[in-house]
């Protein structure tokens, strides 16, 4: 997939890219999809590593902290089959019973000016899960591409590894870190992205613990606030505080 180019003094340059994380970002954490996924991951750890439920949960948390993805620890230390894992975890989530088309999210994304910015998905999930989520939310036609953790490759590459951010830039057609704008709910992913030169918004939903120190320059509680911090990418000037929501 390639991005359109604009001309500056006759020299073609790439458009900026606005990267969106998927899970707990395009939909609310109140859906409790994260908790359902954690339960499935713990069950997988317990079954395949012959662990107690308590030890499975502890190792799951350790791998997530160390690698940004529990699966990375499983592959690195236990050589499990990532695609088999995916079938038992991400693909086993009953998303069709949880996620519905989101008209407000769709209006927000439709208001992004595609002549000014490329809109791209950037997730640590596998491609199946990413496509399923945006289809169920009714916004799958509003993104120009998807960078995902390829479970079919070894070693796995995922956020917050710098290699993953470079992969996203290459796939989305961004030539420079300063052309990359990003929103994610993960503190570590946001922190690292800013270290790599991206402009980042950390999504911390209302009602959930606030980080003691900011992960990056911007912190938002709702995607509608992207209008305020990245106004250059939107067609309208509607404020995030408008009574119309998005």
Structure characterization notes:
With 246 residues, this protein is α/β, with parallel strands linked by helices. Helix content is 37%, strand content 13%. It has helices at 33-49, 53-67, 70-78, 82-88, 103-110, 127-136, 162-172, 187-195, 226-229; strands at residues 5-8, 11-14, 17-20, 118-122, 146-147, 180-184, 199-203, 218-220. The chain has a six-stranded parallel beta sheet with strand order 5-4-3-6-7-8, with helices on both faces. A hairpin with a 2-residue loop joins strand 1 (5-8) and strand 2. The two termini are 29 Å apart. Mean pLDDT is 92; it is low at 1-11 and 242-246.
Rg, rounded, reads 18 Å
- Note the main sheet: 6 strands, parallel
Residue share in helices? Answer: 25-40%
Count of individual helical segments = 9
User: Order of strands in the sheet with the most strands?
Assistant: 5-4-3-6-7-8
Tell the overall outline: globular
Task: Assign the structural class, choosing from mainly alpha, mainly beta, alpha/beta, alpha+beta, or little secondary structure.
Answer: alpha/beta
Which runs of at least 5 residues are low in confidence (pLDDT < 50)? 1-11, 242-246
Report the count of strand segments: 8
The end-to-end distance, rounded to whole angstroms, is 29 Å
Could you state the order of secondary-structure elements as H and E? EEEHHHHHEHEHEHEEH
Summarize the structure.
The protein is 37% helix and 13% strand. It is of the alpha/beta class.
């Amino acid at each position: 997939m390639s991005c359109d180019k604009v001309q500056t003094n006759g020299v073609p340059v790439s458009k900026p890219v606005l990267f969106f994380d998927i899970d707990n970002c395009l939909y609310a954490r109140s859906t409790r999809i994260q908790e359902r996924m954690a339960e499935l991951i713990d069950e997988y750890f317990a079954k395949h590593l012959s662990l107690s439920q308590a030890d499975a949960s502890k190792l799951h948390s350790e791998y997530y902290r160390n690698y940004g993805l529990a699966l990375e620890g499983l592959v690195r230390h236990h050589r499990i089959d990532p695609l088999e894992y995916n079938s038992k975890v991400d693909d086993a989530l009953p998303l069709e019973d949880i996620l519905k088309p989101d008209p407000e999210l769709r209006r927000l994304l439709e208001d992004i000016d595609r002549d000014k910015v490329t809109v791209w998905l950037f997730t640590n999930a596998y491609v199946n899960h990413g496509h399923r989520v945006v289809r169920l939310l009714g916004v799958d036609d509003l993104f120009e591409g998807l960078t995902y953790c390829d479970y079919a490759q070894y070693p796995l590459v995922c956020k917050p590894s710098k290699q993953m951010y470079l992969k996203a830039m290459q796939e989305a057609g961004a030539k420079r870190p300063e052309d990359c704008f990003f929103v994610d709910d993960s503190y570590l992913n946001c922190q690292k992205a800013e270290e790599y030169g991206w402009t980042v918004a950390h999504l911390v939903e209302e009602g959930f613990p606030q980080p003691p120190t900011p992960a990056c320059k911007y912190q938002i509680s709702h995607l509608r606030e992207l209008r305020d911090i990245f106004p250059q990418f939107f067609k309208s000037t509607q404020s995030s505080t408008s009574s119309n929501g998005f």
